[in-house]
Specification:
Rossmann fold, 5 strands
Length: about 120
């Protein structure tokens, strides 16, 4: 990963954002956190986001809607979708929009970190 690139965490639950930021930072990853997709879209891209961890179900704009919007804009960011619900075909729908994986809450820390490192080329 280029110096300064970060993992952006987007979840409407601030406690989840804080927890995931602390986890990823403990592994040497730089993070930013947002409690809505709109807040994420309004951010400056400096430093650039290299990967997003996004909740599937949020008010105003879901994680899938965010991925679809990014794709329509030509901004393809690798994404890890997180969800508290078991949904049929979620992984397939998310993959079509560029998601690298779908993890169910409660999230297995090691699986999340491994997936992000794979996305980012194993560099912190």
């Amino acid at each position: 990963m280029a110096i300064g690139m970060i993992v952006s965490i987007i979840d409407d639950d601030e406690a989840v954002v804080d927890s995931l930021r602390a986890l990823l930072e403990s592994y040497g990853l730089r993070t930013s956190g947002y409690t809505s997709a709109r807040d994420f879209l309004a951010r400056p891209d400096d430093p650039p986001t290299r990967c997003i961890v996004v909740d599937m179900h949020m008010p105003e704009m879901s994680g899938l809607e965010l991925l679809a919007l990014l794709k329509a804009r030509g901004t393809m960011l690798p994404a890890v979708m997180i969800t508290g619900r078991g949904e049929e075909n979620l992984a397939e729908r998310a993959a079509r929009l560029g998601a690298a994986g779908v993890l169910r809450k409660p999230i297995d820390d090691a699986v999340l970190v491994t997936l992000i490192r794979e996305i980012m080329g194993n560099d912190p």
